[in-house]
Every structure is written in structure tokens, then in C-alpha cells.
Design a protein that fits this description.
A: 223 residues; alpha/beta; Rossmann fold; six-stranded mixed sheet; four-stranded antiparallel sheet; 7 helices; B: 390 residues; alpha+beta; elongated
């Protein structure tokens, strides 16, 4: 369960170039729910995702996930939260280009004290969910756009997080890969994962994936 | 706490940027190699000169006339025999012989096979080689041997006395390790031949040593000698040792200062490189933070990687500097210490260095290297991952 209450995010607060990215945001998302965030560029979608994903801290307000206010967590606990509870899929995939597909996917497991057997088990499971298996040793920079996307999904899923956050995940994909992504998300939803997706793409609204659409404008929820 | 998978992963990330890290390694290697080489040269020269000084009698008296060193004779030495507390008075015949073909000066020491000499090594040598007591033998150090051989003087060599007379001498190499300390440019020869080469008459000497068993007597004796020979230069063993320390500490200090300047520039370069230059490194830190790595994990990762680079650079520089100085004789670099003075002909250095040198280089090399990388890494780690990845 995600509960966002009175969330504000102000960049460069008190300075000449102060910018209010989000203001008075309130929403909830139940476990297993898929929420689509819509809005034009600069409306605050990515900022909201980074706050819910524990990538940055709000100026005011709270983000409660499974009862814990992650806005108040110290950095090491917040990092652990990102490691175990959140799977983040970025628009530009954010893979380490010179590492192989396998090493990229395994990156979030490196800091976990688990056996090699368990690591391998997680890798196979994540690859199965992301539906990619034959590119283990290929360098990330040599993967196609769709393969990079699946590598990023596998990496996001490797630690079996309960929350999947995707920021413009289909912006760099063709239609086939976009549909493929939606199918993968449906599969994850069936597994009970909560999904937050920020997108411009109309196709998400047309699909049966979205339970709810939240529209953002100038840092406010408008519908 | 790092996990089992952490170390292989750290090296994996290091390997992916091998060419970039190789440049850092190479720069660090060159800086540390130079520092080690200079320290080795300095320590070796200091060690050799201290060893020579330790093996000499307590007081050296040199005759100075009008500010110039002058020879001494029996008249000069006569009053010294009356000094109480002096065990032995040992006059010395030594000087330089210019070997024109190579453009170098050799140190000539006249030895007496039948009387005490000023140096303990020479005394042992004369006892062992008394059967070789001959006027036409040249006992040469390895540097002289090498130099003569270069001009095809393998067994014999023709020397010219100050009167212009040519004398043919037989070359006998000095194999004893101890003589290296006296200098590789050393020629030991019979005292009468040395006098001829150095323009000294019979009963003339270069200077004189006084052996004093009781160290407490030395200041009194120095004062007494000064009354006997007011213009003479009197040097005690303690003063000589102190001068050697000062000389090499100063040279070493100057180099260390220069080294610190170079290292500071290198650290600024590393800092700039980590913080601004390489987008891939910034992005990598952002990605690791985004997927849940803690700040301490990132710092640990960078410590492992940079310690590996720094320690590899440190140990390879140590090994190469050792070979460069002690096996190859530090070509070019030795000029920093010997300058243009061709009398100091040093083809080889005696291996001599302590833990102190290793620790100094570690502290002024490895520690700042790692620190200069960690600070920008920490700065990047504390920023929101999404900001760093942009």
C-alpha cells in the first residue's frame, strides 16, 4: 500500500532559481494496483516517481509504503528500501554499457549476503519474467533497444520487489516492444506487484493494464 | 560489510575501464618510481659514505695554506706525536688521477703494506695480500675496471707521473665487497707509486688521521691541535657523519618537496577526472545508488579499485626502481646527486634501504592517491541518484 500525503518538492528552495516541482500531492495505491501517471513534460511525473521510489526526499509531506514513511528514513535504510522493495525501470534504461547483460541484471544482488546458488536462482527467475534468456554474455551496449528494456526489467525484478516503478518505459521502444512491455507488466501485476508508470503513451490507457490514471499538471494532480 | 560477490564485481568494473585506469596507473607508477629511485640513490650513497666514515679514525687533520689544501710533511706531523690520548697517527696519501680517454677522475689511495693505513678495510686487505706488495700493481674497483676495459686496458695500463714519466702497471681487480663502499672509482696502489702520481715527495702526505680510543678526549685534542696548527682544518668523525646526514637529507628533502608538488597536481587531475571528466563513471555511481547500493558500498567499491591500482603501481614502481638503481646504476638520475662532478664515478649503488623509505612512499603516494579519488566519489554518492545519472 502506497500513501502519499501533502507531498511537496521544491528544487533550489530559497534561491533565485527556486522551482516548485510538486505541490500538495495526495494519492494512494493499493497492493497489486497499476497506476498510470500522465502529464506533459515538466508536469512532475518523474519527480513523483523518484520520491515514491526513494531516490530523493520530499521538501514536505510523507510517502508511506507498507506503513513506513520513507521520507524520514536515513540514507542507508532508504538504500536498503530501494534494494529490496523497489524495482526501477528508467526511460533510458540506465544500464552499465560495458558490463554484460548478466552482470547488469545481477548488480542489485551484489550487496546482498546471499549464496551464489540463490543469486543464480534469482537471475533465472528475473530473466524468465522479463522473457529474455540467450543474451547473458552480450555487453549492454550491444543489445537492441527492446533487449535493453528487458535487461532493465530483469534487473528491476531480481530482488523480487513489491513495487515496480517505470519512468517513460516505452519512450525509446517501437510498437511491438511497447506491447511486449505491457504484457510483461500484466504478468507482474498478476503476481501481486504494485506498479507505477509515468508515460505519455496513450496505449497504456487503452490497455487493460491500468487500474487508475492520475493526471499531473504544473506539479499538481488535476484528475 | 562487503559480501563475497563484492570483490569480483569491483574488479569487473575495474576491467571494463581498463584503458582509462591504465593511464592513471602509469602516471602514478612514474611518480612513485622516480621517488623510490631518488630515495634509493640517496640512501645508498648516504649508507656508503657513513660506512666509510665509521671505519676511519676519529680526527682528520688537513693542512690549509691561504685557504687552499696543502700537502703535509714530517715537520707538520712532528708536534702531533706529542699529543696525549692519541693511539695512532696515520698519514694518508690520496688524490685524483685523471683518465683522459673517459674524461673521469679516479680516486688514488696509496697503501702501505707494512704500516697501519687509515681505513680498516685497507688494513685487512694489506694483511691478506702482503704477497702482492709490489710497486707496479693497480688494485682497481669495479668502476675503474669497467672504464679501463672500455678502452681495451684489460691486464695492463700505462700511467703518467706528475713528472711526465710513463709507467706500466698491472691491473688487479678488487673483488672485495667492502671496497665498493670506498668507491667504485678506486685505485689502490703502493704508497710510493701514489706519491709519484700525485706529485708528493718522500715523507710528504695528503693529510693525517689521528686515532683516539677515548671519545671524551676528542674536543680537548681538537683544541690542542688548533693551537699547534692554527690554519689547519680539523674534522672529527662525528662532524663528518653529521655532514653526510645533512647533505643527503637536504637533497632528499628538495626532491621530496618537488615530488609533493607533482603529486598534488596528480591528485587534482584525479579529482577532476572523477568529478567532472568521465560521464560514464558518474553514471555508474548513479546507477549503483539507484539500484540500492549504500554510500558506504560505493566508497568501499572505489577503495578496493583504487587501492588495487595504487598498490600495483607502488609495488611495480618499487621493483623497477630497485632494478633501475641497484642493477642498472640509475643512468641519468644519478646526476641529480653527483652533478657534473666527474670524480664521483658511480656505476653501481650498494643496495641499502629500510622500512622507513617504504613507509614514506606509501604515505606520500598511496594514501593521497586513494583519498583524491574518494572525496569526489563521496560527493557524487550523496547526490540524488537521478541527478547523478543525468
Amino acid at each position: 500500500m502506497i500513501t502519499v500525503t501533502n507531498l511537496d518538492k521544491v528544487h533550489n528552495a530559497g534561491q533565485k532559481n527556486e522551482f516548485i516541482a510538486l505541490s500538495g500531492i495526495n494519492f494512494t495505491a493499493a497492493n497489486g494496483e497499476c497506476v498510470i501517471l500522465k502529464g506533459v513534460s515538466g508536469s512532475g511525473k518523474s519527480t513523483l516517481l523518484s520520491l515514491v521510489g526513494g531516490m530523493s526526499k520530499p521538501t514536505h509531506g510523507s510517502v508511506r509504503i507498507e506503513g513506513h514513511n520513507i521520507a524520514k528514513l536515513p540514507d542507508d535504510k532508504l538504500s536498503h528500501f530501494r534494494l529490496t522493495t523497489v524495482g526501477f525501470i528508467f526511460q533510458s534504461f540506465n544500464l552499465i554499457d560495458d558490463l554484460s547483460f548478466r552482470d547488469n541484471v545481477l548488480t542489485p544482488t551484489i550487496c546482498l549476503n546471499i549464496s551464489d546458488k540463490e543469486r543464480e536462482k534469482r537471475f533465472l527467475k528475473a530473466c524468465e519474467l522479463a522473457n529474455i534468456s540467450s543474451k547473458e554474455s552480450t555487453l549492454a551496449k550491444d543489445l537492441s533497444g527492446g533487449e535493453k528494456q528487458r535487461c532493465a526489467i530483469a534487473r528491476a525484478l531480481i530482488n523480487n520487489p513489491s513495487l515496480i516503478i517505470a519512468d517513460e518505459p516505452t519512450a525509446n521502444l517501437d510498437k511491438d516492444n511497447t506491447l511486449y512491455f505491457i504484457e510483461t507488466m500484466k504478468k507482474l501485476k498478476k503476481l501481486g506487484k504494485t506498479i507505477l508508470i509515468a508515460t505519455h503513451d496513450e496505449i497504456f490507457e487503452q490497455s487493460t493494464l491500468a487500474d487508475r490514471v492520475i493526471k499531473l499538471q504544473y506539479g499538481h494532480i488535476v484528475s | 560489510m562487503t559480501t563475497k560477490a563484492f570483490y569480483p564485481y569491483a574488479f569487473l568494473l575495474l576491467r571494463k575501464d581498463a584503458s582509462r585506469h591504465a593511464v592513471t596507473f602509469l602516471l602514478f607508477f612514474v611518480i612513485v618510481f622516480l621517488l623510490f629511485s631518488v630515495l634509493f640513490i640517496s640512501t645508498s650513497l648516504q649508507h656508503d659514505q657513513l660506512a666509510i666514515a665509521q671505519n676511519e679514525p676519529e680526527i682528520l687533520v688537513e693542512n690549509y695554506k691561504g685557504g687552499k689544501k696543502s700537502d703535509i710533511d714530517d715537520f707538520f706531523m712532528q708536534p702531533l706525536y706529542g699529543l696525549k690520548g692519541v693511539e695512532k697517527i696515520i698519514p694518508r696519501v690520496n688524490g685524483k688521477y685523471y683518465f683522459e680517454q673517459a674524461g673521469v677522475y679516479f680516486t688514488v689511495i696509496g697503501i702501505d703494506f707494512f704500516a697501519p693505513n687509515f681505513n680498516e678495510y685497507i688494513n685487512q686487505f694489506t694483511k691478506q695480500k702482503i704477497n702482492l706488495a709490489s710497486k707496479d700493481l693497480f688494485f682497481v674497483g669495479s668502476g675503474v675496471k669497467k672504464s679501463l676495459e672500455h678502452f681495451y686496458y684489460k691486464n695492463n695500463f700505462t700511467v703518467y707521473t706528475q713528472k711526465g714519466e710513463a709507467k706500466r702497471v698491472k691491473i688487479v681487480p678488487l673483488e672485495d665487497k667492502e671496497f665498493r663502499l670506498l668507491g667504485n672509482n678506486l685505485i689502490l696502489c703502493d704508497i710510493s707509486l701514489a706519491r709519484e702520481l700525485l706529485a708528493l715527495e718522500t715523507f710528504e702526505y695528503s693529510d693525517v688521521y689521528l686515532s683516539v680510543p677515548n671519545e671524551a678526549e676528542i674536543p680537548n685534542l681538537v683544541a690542542h691541535i688548533r693551537t699547534l696548527h692554527p690554519t689547519a682544518k680539523i674534522t672529527t668523525k662525528e662532524e663528518k657523519i653529521s655532514k653526510i646526514h645533512t647533505l643527503y637529507d637536504t637533497k632528499g628533502g628538495i626532491f621530496l618537496s618537488l615530488f609533493i608538488v607533482v603529486l598534488l597536481s596528480f591528485m587534482i587531475l584525479l579529482y577532476q577526472k572523477t568529478l567532472f571528466s568521465f560521464a560514464s563513471e558518474k553514471k555508474e555511481i548513479g546507477i549503483l545508488r539507484a539500484v540500492g547500493w549504500k554510500i558506504t558500498d560505493i566508497i568501499t567499491l572505489k577503495i578496493i579499485q583504487n587501492l588495487f591500482i595504487a598498490l600495483s603501481g607502488y609495488f611495480s614502481a618499487l621493483l623497477c626502481a630497485y632494478l633501475f638503481v641497484f642493477k642498472l646504476g640509475a643512468p641519468l638520475l644519478q646526476n641529480i646527486f653527483v652533478g657534473s662532478d666527474k670524480t664521483l664515478f658511480i656505476p653501481h649503488f650498494t643496495p641499502s634501504f629500510g622500512v622507513g623509505e617504504l613507509v614514506i612512499v606509501f604515505l606520500v603516494g598511496v594514501v593521497p592517491f586513494v583519498a583524491s579519488v574518494l572525496f569526489p566519489v563521496w560527493k557524487l554518492s550523496v547526490i540524488d541518484p537521478t541527478e547523478v545519472m543525468k
